User: Fold this.
Amino acid sequence: MPPVIPNGSEMLPTVSASAGEASGAAGIAVERSEATVRWRPSRHARRLLTLAAAGLLLATITRRPELAGVAAPALLLLGAARPPRPSRIGVRVRLTTTRLYEGELAAVDVAVDDASHDVRWLLQADRGIEPASATAVNGAVARFTFTVPRWGRRRVGSVALVLHDRWRLAEGRVSYTLPAVDCYPHPAVQRTRVVLSRLPNRLGEHSARVSGEGVEFTGVREYVPGDRQRAINWPATTRRGRLQVNTFAAERSQDVVLLVDATSDVGEPGSSALDLGLRGAAGAARAYLDGRDRVGVITYQWGGARWLAPSLGRRQVYKIIDTMLAADAGYARGATFRRLPRAALPPGALVVAFSPLLEQRFVEALRDMRERGFSLMVVDVLNTEPPTRLSFADSAARRIWRMEQQAIRFSLRELGVPVVHWDGDAPLDLPLAPYTRRPLVVRR
Amino acid sequence: MGPPVGGPEPAAGAVTSRGAMAAAGPRLAAIVLGAACIAWTATPVRHTGLATTALVVSIIAVTAGALRLALSDVPQPEDDYFLAAHVRAWLAFLAVLRLLPWEEIAVAVLLWLEVQHPARPWHTAALGAGLLAYLLAVHNAESGAEHLIGRQAKLLIAGACLLALGAGFAMLPAAGPGAGSTLLRVLAAAAVVAAAALVLPA
Assistant:
């Protein structure tokens, strides 16, 4: 289960503004504001006016009094309707959250302090927003729900309030532009973790191969001065005639660096290589942070890399996702992939790369990292192939392309880099299963 | 996933067969009233150029208004690139249907068609009632407002009386020869209508 996103009411700033001001200010949620209503004749009123005007005009031109009578009912309706039309009105528009995951429901709550008019709310959703409820609702209070199917920063759209008088001859309008929302990639399901055989000397939750103060029993040895009395194994002591003590595995944490290849985005939008890479990295970040590991991220893209140093804690998940989503700005940061600082890529860290392995320079960078002694693992997120065509040249090119891809994966495996394929639907635990059952041996 | 929303869904989401019938009723009424107004005005058919043109335009306007009402639930798709020709044509057709004020055109043209016929006061008064009913039915179909006719019943009765009064004015024999007397009758009828509109309370 992804983490609970805090309610948007805690995050959104509250301002007091008129509708005219608020409608132009994207990124602001308006709470309890006084809105200026713009009144105008309704379509019904305009039609009645046309009937009356045409009747009177033709009566005058043709000098036929019965045509003036045709105008009478319409004029009566228009003349008798003198409803109160308030110029300002109390309106509340609130977005429940500005951060959500793909496919997650969010809502816009709207309310108006007016009981004398018929009220209609309209949601005009922007591109990339899918309404999950009716987009037009009658009543003083309404709630529109929506989802965002694909990650990214999205403008929600606008909400329009339409007020009708008792006879629906005049209508007042108020419009609000809703703030943009940040949609995070839906994290892949991962419950198990790949653990290195050699862990840094830092307290954590993974059982290390060295003895320590953990809870996992590793063996029995002879007592030496300084050992704790409660560790004495009395049955073994009785059998051997000398004091024996239990030994336990030390519990350590590891550094994990997630490497996301953002150079290639191939496949259907929504399940492309970049979509799967981001979802897999988000799921892995959450799984390793749940295991008290320090997790960081490096996003590889054209012209350089954007990185976030490994760290602990729940907030790190959001920092990692924010770093991945802001990958477009990576070049400005000035870091290149070949010259990453030690903080971004600590020695002895486990590097998990999510890539379709289509970019040759990225593959070369992986080889380079392996030769420098990093423990690498590649999750292959390529789930598409060149289109099938009937011509011989096309089918030959397709075969050559496949062989090239197989060769790239083979060469990485030869270097000791496990390459697992992930289709994006199954949990990440499945392809990683061969490597999560036992510690991944670190080879220098 | 922590759901950021809770509470009940808006009740407007459910579409039942009863709701569909309730929505289709006013639309059907508007279409029938529009067709009836055309038939009422056109008979007896006159074959002068202006009358034929007015008849064709009124048929087009009423048909387009009916199509607009029937297709009012079809959503306008998002702008997109490289649309197929038939999709572009369909979008243009929808845009034209929703852009022009078809009912207003129909009302004006039908009155013009009525003028093409010789004077027939009660026929014209019935046409006025029919046009008002047509506009009210269109408004009901568009807005889904309930009890709108009931709220305006008193005014509609007063309007019908004035309509009959207008027809009655037309049937009175002229006070004297010349064009001035007929113009005076028209002005008198218009004055009665205006006075009633000003005097009646909201």
In short: The helical segments of chain B are 17-42, 49-70, 85-99, 102-116, 121-143, 148-151, 153-171, 179-199. The two ends of chain B are 55 Å apart (CA to CA). Chain B touches chain A through 68 residues (CB under 8 Å). The first helix of chain B runs from residue 17 to 42.
